TrEMBL record:
Region listing for Disordered, in residue ranges: 95-121
Protein name stated in the entry: tRNA adenosine deaminase-associated protein
Top-level taxon of the source organism: Bacteria
Bias-annotated ranges (Acidic residues): 101-118
InterPro entries: tRNA_Adeno_NH3ase_assoc_put
Length: 167
């Protein structure tokens, strides 16, 4: 299974992006420690984990303490050890598309085959609300890397993520 894990962290000096190796991490606490270590002074760190052009997990850490987790599909926990580590403790299903109400046409996904889990509004204060995140994840033809790129552009770290991918 192909995994790409990238952390973006915001500190007083701006955004930084770095790739993380999750292969040796045994549990969510070790993942949080690795995320925290990418930029210890960050007020916000976000980890994007893309798997096999099929699954996306997003972890948000505020002030190095408050963890919020979202997964594009609960099947990631069954398909991968990393998916199980990241999403195994998430019990809350993400808001259903029916729960989101009406929105822009751009925010209307195709009929999803996925079962998103966790906190779909984890990036809401950064300009990517639950409806938009779920729409991006459910949009036909959108790969996890496309969703990550779109989110990073919206929250202000698109250039840093693009540079990391090209390195």
């Amino acid at each position: 299974m192909s995994i790409f894990a990238a952390a973006v962290a915001r500190s007083k000096s701006g955004w930084t992006a770095s790739e993380l190796d999750l292969s040796g991490l045994a549990d969510i606490d070790e993942v949080v420690d690795a995320l925290r270590d990418t930029e210890p002074d960050a007020d916000l760190a976000v980890l994007f984990v893309e798997s096999d052009d099929e699954y996306l997990a997003i972890l948000r850490l505020d002030e190095g303490e408050d963890l919020r987790v979202f997964g594009s599909d609960s099947a990631f926990t069954e398909e991968s050890r990393i998916g199980s580590v990241l999403l195994g403790e998430v019990e809350t299903p993400a808001l259903g598309l029916d729960d989101l109400g009406s929105g822009d046409e751009d925010d209307k996904p195709a009929e999803p085959d996925a079962d998103p889990v966790g906190d779909a509004d984890l990036l809401g204060d950064l300009g990517v609300g639950a409806q938009r995140l779920l729409a991006l994840c459910g949009m036909e033809g959108m790969l996890p890397s496309d969703v990550t790129a779109e989110i990073c552009q919206r929250i202000g770290c698109g250039d840093e993520m693009e540079e990391l991918r090209e390195a």
